[in-house]
Amino acid sequence: MSKILIIEDEAAIRRVLVKILSEENESYTVQEVEDGLAGIELIKKEDFDLILCDIKMPKMDGVEVLEAVKKIKPEIPVVMISGHGDLDTAVNTMRLGAFDYISKPPDLNRLLNTVRIALDRKELVVENTRLKKKVSQKYEMIGNSAAISQIKEMIEKVAPTEARVLITGPNGTGKELVAHWLHEQSDRAKGPLIEVNCAAIPSELIESELFGHVKGAFTSAAKDRAGKFEAANGGTIFLDEVGDMSLSAQAKVLRALQENRVQRVGSDRDIKVDVRVIAATNKDLKKEIAEGKFREDLYHRLAVILIKVPALSDRREDIPLLVDYFTQKIADEHGTSQKKFSDKAIKLLQEYDWTGNIRELRNVVERLIILGGKEISETDVKLFASK
Fold first, then answer.
1. Distance between CA atoms of 171 and 359, rounded to whole angstroms?
2. What residues does 31 pair with on adjacent strands?
3. 146-310 with 313-384: one CATH topology?
4. Residues 168-218: pLDDT tens digits?
5. What is the pLDDT of residue 48?
6. 3-state DSSP call for residue 325?
7. Is CATH 1.10.150.120 correct for 313-384?
8. Which backbone phi and psi does 288 adopt, to 5 degrees?
9. Pairing between strand 165-168 and 305-308?
10. What does the pLDDT read at residue 238?
11. Residue 235 pLDDT
12. What's domain 146-310's architecture?
């Protein structure tokens, strides 16, 4: 069912609009009010899929209603209803965020077409919001320990800037979560986030992967191909395990950071890129520099802001929250009800040294849910969470 609200001070116009919409589609539920103030009060209390609003009304005009709706529930499309003398104002409301405007008396076909398109757009906005929320939840950082709270505060300060960030920490601690939140809370959030696992790409292919190549640059280069830096243009590139990058690739990344330009392998033409770089590593890069395996100048370019993600053993107080989170996620994935962990089971899990960190804890929780009893007990932990 689609809920439509009509805000119109002329009773005759309201009757026409209600009749047209009700007869057009049985799934339309239409409500009506006679002034803007009453409309805003109703919008605060109920959810609507579309608002049809007159421009000239007593108490509160249509422009004021539109501005209020955009603050209260910006996802609701608002179609303005204008008289001949209101056309300039109607056009101005489009700049303020109105979906469309309809002249009085309303043309039947124009009205119904606009309503259908507006409702389709609302459905699309809601779906996009749902998907974005789902993505955000996938990369949610769980915990309220001092270490995690400090990271969240750091992200809040750093994300809106263009500063490059180097994220350090052992494997499985959630460095990629920090990268995703930095991107999602930045001004580049509408742009792409391109992830590159530098450890997973053979050294002879890393330059082609990052910067692209031209046809014939090497044996298997059958056609021109853009690299990850070009793909991330206008957004963020996340160089995961940057400490595993070859020295040759490091030199090219350094140039890209210095000049905001890249060259495809086999080409001498510069391509301008606008990219924010976030890097992560589980290695001690200062030690790598001392051993000649990592460029010091690149390190200083990448490490404008340093964020260290702690090992799980250094934030044991977060384990109950993480277990609860994983239990719910796993239940959703398996389509089963959520199992409960006893207090003693949780306490025992807090005593373990999690060398694989959060990734290992997640695997153990799933194993316990599959193999344990209706309530996960201390005995279940001893049997199935052996280290």
1. 8
2. 5
3. no
4. 999 999 999 999 999 998 999 989 999 999 999 988 889 999 999 998 888
5. 93
6. helix
7. no
8. -60, -35
9. parallel
10. 97
11. 94
12. 3-Layer(aba) Sandwich (3.40)
Q: Write out residues in the chain with pLDDT < 70, as ranges.
A: 85, 128-137, 386-387
Give the tens place of pLDDT for each residue, 202-214.
888 899 999 999 9
Give residues with Cβ within 8 angstroms of 387, minimum separation 6.
Answer: 352, 353
∠ Cα 363 365 367 (to 5°): 70
- What are the extents of the domains in the chain? 2-136, 146-310, 313-384
Q: Would you call 299 helix, strand, or coil by DSSP? A: helix
Residue 49 and residue 313: Cα distance in Å, rounded? 48
Domain 2-136 = CATH 3.40.50.2300: yes
CA distance 146 to 149: 5
Residue 210's Cβ-side half-sphere holds a number of Cα atoms within 13 Å equal to 34
Task: Give Dmax over CA atoms of the chain in angstroms.
Answer: 84
The partner residues of 195 in beta bridges, in order of sequence, read 238
DSSP strand pairing (270-272 vs 261-263): antiparallel
8 A C-beta contact, residue 75 and residue 45: no
Tokens of residue 105, six digits: 């008396």
Give the integer Cα–Cα distance in Å for 21 and 328: 43
